[in-house]
Amino acid sequence: xxxxxxxxxxxxxxxxxxxxxxxxxxxxxxxxxxxxxxxxxxxxxxxxxxxxxxxxxxxxxxxxxxxxxxxxxxxxxxxxxxxxxxxxxxxxxxxxxxxxxxxxxxxxxxxxxxxxxxxxxxxxxxxxxxxxxxxxxxxxxxxxxxxxxxxxxxxxxxxxxxxxxxxxxxxxxxxxxxxxxxxxxxxxxxxxxxxxxxxxxxxxxxxxxxxxxxxxxxxxxxxxxxxxxxxxxxxxxxxxxxxxxxxxxxxxxxxxxxxxxxxxxxxxxxxxxxxxxxxxxxxxxxxxxxxxxxxxxxxxxxxxxxxxxxxxxxxxxxxxxxxxxxxxxxxxxxxxxxxxxxxxxxxxxxxxxxxxxxxxxxxxxxxxxxxxxxxxxxxxxxxxxxxxxxxxxx
Length: 394
Ligand SMILES: *Cc1c(COP(=O)(O)O)cnc(C)c1O
Fold this sequence. Notes:
The protein is α/β, with parallel strands linked by helices. The protein folds into 2 domains: 250 residues, Type I PLP-dependent aspartate aminotransferase-like (Major domain) (Aspartate Aminotransferase, domain 2); 133 residues, Aspartate Aminotransferase, domain 1 (Alpha-Beta Complex). The strands form 2 sheets. The chain has a 7-stranded mixed beta sheet with strand order 1-7-6-5-4-2-3, sandwiched between helices. Strands 8-9-12-11-10 form a 5-stranded mixed beta sheet, with helices on one face. α5 links the parallel β2 and β3. α3 packs parallel to α10, α4 crosses α9 and α13 packs across α15. The longest helix has 21 residues. InterPro entries: Cys/Met-Metab_PyrdxlP-dep_enz, Cys_met_metab_PP, O-succ-hSer_sulfhydrylase, PyrdxlP-dep_Trfase, PyrdxlP-dep_Trfase_major, PyrdxlP-dep_Trfase_small. It catalyses: O-succinyl-L-homoserine + hydrogen sulfide = L-homocysteine + succinate. Pathway: Amino-acid biosynthesis; L-methionine biosynthesis via de novo pathway; L-homocysteine from O-succinyl-L-homoserine: step 1/1. Pfam families: Cys_Met_Meta_PP.
């Protein structure tokens, strides 16, 4: 396989990671096979022992899945990538592979609701202690470090309030204390932010979101060094089996080809929508890292190349007013997903964050008047008009 080392990231998204088969196909092939045939008993034995590299069984070695892994690794600048059945299984696999009972994990409190449940309900059940700290207050991260802290976890920008965490400061803290920094890079994708270059040890993706980009399949990925990800996380996947199917890998592989151009277009629509919402009289506050009014605007400018595709805002009023805006849209999809060419609208308090205790939810700033928009690639005028119907009624 050509490493394409000297190519631009936009080219890597289209060209990296795939070995053409003897059929000379131009578009990547799908290999829907559970197992592989060997030339001899000796070759089978060599594959199983690892003495000979190659395919063994599609739970942990499949050519289509590997092509997706290689291509995403090229984009994130990672030595190794392991594809998983979902974003949640990417997070689970990482912590099951790298932590053990007695370890302590520090997580930003501003993370995806389901990830919070994974940490506080399931990791805790296996003796891994978890502390939640402020995404943006570095002193809380410092104060939470213990001798047994194994890993720090965050998403930046956060969901749904787009708080930006300081990757360089937090990765330096992790290094000083011999622990790992794990970053969920779902919102930015490698097109806007490459956490490994900024000191993170592991990057996690929900491929379900922008990597696919068209809302077709559920998948995830873990990226990092050959040692941590190539050996440890892959070992977990091989044994425990939360693997990506070849069909889904193919969808994501083809999704990566348009990732650079899609992310650019998402960001262009999002900044325009954020600016427009900021001026609407019935909007109380807009959350978007590309807005000069964002509290971490300078930090976002430093570590991301653009603001991303997610815009959240608070309407004047409460749940009733938020629901009025949502229910008056004609075009947008009312759904909790994100990262689609279709614009998606969500009421976080009663959907994505409904399993979080009300008190915790308020502490995290997820109020009843908050709406999250995953800005799609429809005409920006149609997107604005769709929100205007309800907003003008308040
Ligand atoms: C959706 C999401 C996940 C979980 O991914 P799934 O593919 O739905 O399992 C994790 N982190 C973030 C930031 C997400 O948005």
